[in-house]
Amino acid sequence: MRIAAYLETLHREIDLWARALGAHDGMAHLHFGGGSPNALLAEDFKDLVAHASRAFGLRPGAEIAVEIDPRGLTPDFIHAMA
Length: 82
Known about the structure:
Blueprint: H1 2-21, E1 27-32, H2 42-56, E2 58-66, H3 75-81
Parallel strand pairs: 1-2
Helix pairs in contact: 1-2, 2-3
């Protein structure tokens, strides 16, 4: 439940920043770290990346980096990152 509330808040914050930035060239780099990715389900992570990509746009060749504890990886999460 707390993760769902966190994700909902994060999606709203992404939308707020996208509106505040206005038109721009898109993201060159999107980084997830600090242990947060380990707390997400694969589908939640996939949705978060898609939401950020829609909100800000991705530049051609943009890098998406994920800092994660490999002990918490599942096959589903690996496929979500692909």
